[in-house]
Structures are given as structure tokens and as C-alpha cells.
Amino acid sequence: MSDLLTRDFFDRPTHVVAPDLLGRIVQFGPVGVRLTEVEAYGLPGQDPASHTYRGRTPRNAVMFGPPGFLYVYFTYGMHFCANIVCLPEGLGSAVLLRAGEVVAGLDVARERRTGVKDRDLARGPARLAMTLAFGRAQNGLDCFGGGPLRVLAGSPGGKIMSGPRTGVSTGADTPWRFWIDGDPTVSPYRAHVPRRNDRVLRKAVRSAENTDL
DNA sequence: GTGCAGATACACT
DNA sequence: GTGTATCTGCACG
Question: Nearest protein residue to B11's C1' (by CA)?
């Protein structure tokens, strides 16, 4: 199974595309990852968790473009995460690639992430991005442009599960996180722990220390 | 298993 | 100017 999907595949709402994406293979150059966990992000003004919630910015501009393009963003000052844009140009939504299993270019993937167990190579959104070598330069790449980035057909080979995304009030009734049941490469990530108070406290302590110096 | 440090882009005051 | 973020690796138990 290595047929290409068509762009139409992504010309649908994210919560429809996301579960359908499980088991498909994202290939970039020599490395291919079979998706085992994804998360859908909604439209501006509708999904507080989405980067497009507050409208268009230079960073999220790709999300407002046509479907089937890669949106790579930088977060926490050190990590990249990758999404694929859904719905027609101008709407602004995408599916986050959370985890997967390396099924092609395993040797290259191991070289990129030495000392990491095979199952952990793409187990988590930022790890997946590292393994596929997604970075700033890959933001805005077309999955259907005939270039090194492609999405291939595949089947989940397991039961598809879904659950609510954490920390979101609006989408609490609609479970927009999808994974393949029992797959060892599904990221263990916890329900987004809002460590706000801890972080605020730590930051306060740090700045207090700086002041004392 | 749990807890924390890291360091940048962006929205908001 | 300030606070948060679609998180990971490592230290520790």
C-alpha cells in the first residue's frame, strides 16, 4: 500500500480528516512515519486551543492557505510540531501529527536521534518532527507538490479510539484526539496539565533571585 | 513512576 | 513589558 492520497482528502473538516489519517504514512525524503495519534484543531473563533482562534498572524498564515500543506511551528523555545492544513483556503484549521511509527528510512531516523529506542523515534509531536527533519524551512511545504513530502495510503490495523482534548472548554463535548488502540508508539502524554500556578511561582522566584543579585 | 528546566514567538496589557 | 505555549529530556525515587 503506497498509493498517494489526493488533496481532496484534506478538503474536509479536521475532526473528519483526523481519524481517517490514522495508519497513513507521512513520507519526507527517506523517512516515512505511519501515524498512530493525531489531534484536530478547529476554526478561528471556535476552538480556543487552535492557533487560529484569534485570527491570522504571520506565524499561522499557512493554516489559512489551501489544504494539504504542512504547518510547522516552533514552541517552548526549542521544539517544532507539524500539522497538515485542512479545509479550503481562508478557513484556518489543521490536524496535529502527534505520534507515529517509523516504517521507512529507519536507519536515517536512528542516525537523527541516536540513543533513542525505535518505538520512541516519533512518539510525541516534537519527536515526530525531529525524526522527519521538520523545521522552519519545511513550514508551508505542499504534500501534493511532487516534492519530497508525501502522504501515502495505509490502514490503521487496529481499533480507532478518540477522547476529549484537555484544557479546552468549547470542544469538551467533541473528542478531537484520535489514536490507534494499543499501539506502542502512541505518545503517553498526559492530559495537558495546566501547571500555571507552578510556572508562575517558579518564574516569580527566579526574578526575585535576579533582583537580589 | 513524578517533577522540573529550558529559551523563543506571539498575543495581550 | 509580561505571560503562555499543540513539549521533551533528564534527574531522581
Answer: A54
CB of A58 nearer than 7 A to strand B: yes
- State, as a whole number of angstroms, the distance between the CA of A62 and the C1' of B11: 18
Q: How many Å does it take to go from CA A112 to C1' C9?
A: 16
DSSP letters, A24-50, are -EEEETTEEEEEEEEEEE--TTT-TTS
Residue A62 sits in a domain whose CATH number is: 3.10.300.10
* pTM (predicted TM-score): 0.90
The pLDDT tens digits of the residues spanning A68-114 come to 999 999 999 999 999 999 999 999 999 999 999 999 999 999 999 98
Distance A192 CA to B3 C1' (A): 15
Beta-carbon contacts of A161 under 8 Å, excluding residues fewer than 6 positions away, are A178, A179, A180, A181
| Protein-contacted bases of chain B (C-beta within 7 A) | 1, 4-12
The answer to the question of residue A123 being in a domain is yes
A136 lies in some domain: yes
Write down the mean pLDDT value for chain A.
Answer: 87
Give the DSSP H/E element, type plus range, for residue A128. Answer: helix A125-131
Q: Does residue A2 lie in a domain region? A: no
